[in-house]
Specification:
This protein is mostly helical. The protein is about 75% helix and about 0% strand. Strands 1-2 form a two-stranded antiparallel ribbon.
């Protein structure tokens, strides 16, 4: 069994263990499996035989198939459009011949795509970006080297919008290729803050590979390389990197690093208004969303902090839809793990109202909706409809 599969099985075991609020030692005792074995399986360092998996499943009170099988995303028109996007970026250096709009019109199109990304309108991106990326590639190769900086910057921003679709819809190889193209184009753009933005997005590749410690190291290197924060955009860029570093430190279960980076991000957030800087929302409200995310990632004893951070607070409507829906998805998981099943379902429904596509494609939504359906703690009809909508099994 490949290491990546080990990791998926281990994460599912850890998920159901926390849901039942038992320790690794208690699971080991109930399953008659060595504690060291449980730890290694959850960390993805070893696999589990059929007999061991069945014993663990019995101790957790789930069917063994729930531990063996990852739930895939529902198939949508966006998935149908991904091969076209893949073909376009494969030809980034040899684009088809065709017309190129004036630079000001290309700028407008790239800004529009960024707006779609922030508002989680992924279908529009999937259908519009292939043509825009091809046109930008033509412009890049037709422009004199001394004048390519602006086009290169537009390419980076357009690649980021395309990457949002690839990453959210599970096309991780395509996402990694788009990020590498961002890293290829950004040096020529000559924008240090855009370089920091690319470092922020690159973290997706570490999330996808579950290489959280390496991802934290990469972000800390990006922080060292970022320019001194002397302007509002510069302060926001640095704060966003700390905010991202806190999240991946949480995934790495490095509570000390997570708290340190959250504190740094908070200091920067207090200096700037909430806004979108170089494609990334940052400010006091974004930071509060991420405080919940970090607490959920750290799990176990930190869940109360996630609920406290949320409290009676709601993300303001001015915050991008993708970020607001993400807050309720994270909150739902904290509520579910804390035994607040009805509240968790309400949070998932709020996330769906805010950004349906983002919510439907989120793997945590499918996992948590499936768990809620089994617990039967909410209205059965609406819960069944929700679970079928997001392909929870």
């Amino acid at each position: 069994m490949p290491a990546l599969v080990y990791g998926r099985v281990g994460r599912r075991i850890a998920y159901y263990r926390r849901l039942r609020r038992i320790t690794q030692q208690q699971l080991a005792d109930a399953a008659c499996v060595a504690l060291g074995t449980i730890r290694k399986i959850e960390r993805g360092e070893r696999g589990a035989s059929d007999a061991t998996l069945e014993a663990i499943a019995a101790a957790l009170g789930v069917d063994p198939t729930q531990l063996r099988t990852d739930r895939g995303p529902a198939h949508t028109p966006v998935h149908d459009a991904l091969p076209v996007l893949s073909a376009v970026i494969a030809a980034y250096d040899v684009p088809d011949e065709g017309p190129v709009r004036p630079l000001n019109e290309l700028c407008t199109a790239v800004r529009e795509a960024a707006h779609w990304r922030l508002s989680a309108q992924y279908t529009r991106i999937a259908h519009k970006l292939p043509g825009l990326l091809t046109e930008l590639a033509r412009a890049y190769h037709a422009t004199l080297p001394a004048e390519r900086a602006e086009v290169a910057g537009l390419l980076v921003r357009a690649y980021r919008s395309a990457d949002a679709v690839a990453y959210k819809f599970g096309a991780r190889d395509l996402s990694a290729r788009l990020i590498e193209l961002m890293r290829w184009a950004v040096p020529e753009a000559g924008e240090p803050l855009l370089t920091a933005s690319v470092a922020y997005v690159r973290t997706e590749t570490f999330f996808a590979a579950h290489a959280h410690t390496a991802g934290l190291r990469a972000l800390e290197q990006a922080l060292d390389a970022a320019p001194a924060p002397t302007t509002v955009p510069g302060i926001a860029a640095r704060g966003a990197l700390h905010m991202r570093a806190a999240v991946i430190a949480g995934r790495a279960r490095d509570a000390s690093a997570a708290v340190t980076h959250l504190d740094e991000a908070r200091a920067f957030a207090d200096q700037v208004p909430e806004d979108v800087y170089h494609g990334t929302a940052f400010g006091p409200d974004s930071l509060r969303v991420h405080e919940v995310s970090v607490a959920v990632s750290l799990g176990d004893g930190h869940l109360g902090r996630a609920l406290d951070a949320a409290g009676a607070w709601k993300p303001p409507t001015e915050l991008p839809a993708e970020r607001r829906s993400g807050f309720y998805i994270e909150l739902a998981r904290a509520q579910l793990w804390s035994g607040m099943a009805d509240d968790a379902f309400e949070s998932l429904k709020v996330a769906r109202r805010i950004a349906p596509q983002h919510t439907r494609e989120h793997p945590w939504v499918r996992e948590d909706a499936a768990t809620l359906r089994r617990l039967k703690r909410a209205d059965s009809g609406s819960l069944t409809n929700f679970a079928e909508w997001c392909a929870a099994t």
